[in-house]
Amino acid sequence: MDKIIVRGGRQLNGTVRAEGAKNAVLPVIAASIIASEGKSVLHDVPPLADVYTINEVIRHMNADVNMKNRSVTIDASNQLTTEAPIEYVRKMRASVLVLGPLLARYGHAKVALPGGCAIGSRPLDQHLKGFEAMGAEVTVGNGSIEAHVNGRLQGAKIYLDVPSVGATENIIMAAALAEGRTVLENCAKEPEIVDLANFLNKMGARIVGAGTETIRIDGVDKLYGATHTIIPDRVEAGTFMVAAAISGGNVLVQGAMHEHLRSVISKMEEMGVTIEEEEDGLRVIGPKQLKATDIKTMPHPGFPTDMQSQMMALMLSATGTSVITETVFENRFMHVEEFRRMNAKMKIEGRSVIVEGPSALQGAEVQATDLRAGAALILAGLVAEGYTRVTELKHLDRGYVDFTEKLAQLGADIERVNEEESYVEESEPSESVSTL
Ligand SMILES: CC(=O)N[C@H]1[C@@H](OP(=O)(O)OP(=O)(O)OC[C@H]2O[C@@H](n3ccc(=O)[nH]c3=O)[C@H](O)[C@@H]2O)O[C@H](CO)[C@@H](O)[C@@H]1O
Ligand SMILES: C=C(OP(=O)(O)O)C(=O)O
What we know:
Its EC number is 2.5.1.7. This protein is α/β, with parallel strands linked by helices.
């Protein structure tokens, strides 16, 4: 089992590039199986564990998938099977995104129920409500969800009770091949929804309004493979922005898009961080002294829940009391206990965490409780005294490519070792840093 060992105290400087977005590429790969003719070619695909998982899911359904460097070619023109194998759904909830495409193309889809996870219960009722409104019969039982429709799905008017990202994606994919018009209201407005709609439109779909709260989809008879470049990962970019700020450094994050990161930029600026827009990204300059602030997570364009734990790490270094309130997921504070091992002064009150800063952070052995928590603990380790050892890296690997190497290139004292090597490291920490 791997471990990341980071020693605090180094200032980060230089340039780092954001990869293609995990949360954009997963629905785009799922959408590629709607094409009954032609190949899809996707560029800027990050080599992440989640990408390998979704590739395996559609490969098991009989699609041809080839990943080379950061490009993926998908040919789904074969007859596909309409069931997602349970082992992949267990690994990654986003596997449920094949439901919409399969149901639209074949009138049948079955996936295992993904269940709850480390950040909350994450129900799928809004996805299912959308399919039912389009005429599908949905049954949930024996650990799986099965949807079936005789003939084609029918366009419908659907109002989401919550602006769910996954439900919006599943419904627009299903509606793209439905008969007639679907109007989806109170939908998610995340940039990844816009990227998915752009890809589907290149495949021949007729979708307008993505990025607003009402999306209109006029169903077509057939969709074709298309070529598409995935948008940059705003959460990975935001994580490196925090790394620059927390270490008092100066880092250009290439690919970081101002319009996708407005809420994060505004909060970091309130904390005293300087952020300058450059031609190819955002330059982030950490202040001598960070100031406390309050944050409430919300659906886009509000502050993203996927940046909550990283901002908590930043708050630990700020002077004063900060309050962070999580409104999207009911159980996304597992990292608080891990931060406490590092001598963080913080307490949970209902859906809020009160952070007393600045905390004199000390290195400790901590666990990545989810992928963003893993990144956040490493960020805290950048400024902690001594060595921080982060385990359970399978979570981190779902969402970050070469995280250790990228931080090392910026000047962090960090390395990734396997358990046996780390035993030696613990008695005699190495001074060297790993490079790309
Ligand atoms: C692969 C991917 O893109 N993952 C992102 C996606 O997850 P995901 O698509 O799973 O998140 P949702 O937007 O669906 O969830 C948001 C909220 O809606 C609730 N809900 C959702 C669906 C439903 O049918 N019923 C319901 O009540 C959830 O419990 C949660 O409280 O958006 C989240 C919120 O920005 C991000 O944290 C995840 O990184
Ligand atoms: C929660 C996340 O992802 P997922 O929905 O894939 O679990 C995330 O990216 O922070």
